Amino acid sequence: MLEIPESKVTSLQIEEVLAGKRIAKVNPASSPHKFAWYNGDPAEYDKLLSMKALLATEQRIPGLGNGVLQDILFNGGIHPKRKKSTLSDFEKGELFHSLKVTLNSMTENGGRDTEKDLFGINGKYKTILSKNTVNKPCPNCGGNIVKEAYLGGAIYYCPVCQKI
Q1: Predicted structure pTM score
Q2: Is the Cβ–Cβ distance between 154 and 148 less than 8 Å?
Q3: pLDDT class for 39, splitting at 50, 70, 90?
Q4: Would you tell me which CATH number, out of the four given (3.90.180.10, 3.30.70.260, 1.10.8.50, 1.10.390.10), belongs to the domain 66-157?
């Protein structure tokens, strides 16, 4: 899923590279990264361009997905299975601070290392918790990062630093 850091990086790249340019040719159903949106039949795109038609796709605002949430929770010291009703006002403030700082760091570093930018290049933000860090040492305590299935997806956490 395209999430906030990568959507911001991609939008900056598009603004820098594509602003003021005109689409002259389309290679339908091909993408160097895993996000692409199609409206109608991609095989018909070249015909639409020759008619000077404007291609529009419905945009959706990328949100906080599971991928970025893992590091936000880690940086906030919150276990991913913790019920929000058990958070103190202080912990809620820490979590909000973690959200802002973590997303900013991900964006400033060109997105996460588990995702690619507009040019197919991985981001430089080194994820703390992801498929790449399972069974590796926690950067805070040295314990092993674990992965569990939860609510139809995967969660990653440090059982020492992120207690329920």
Answers
A1: 0.69
A2: yes
A3: low
A4: 1.10.8.50
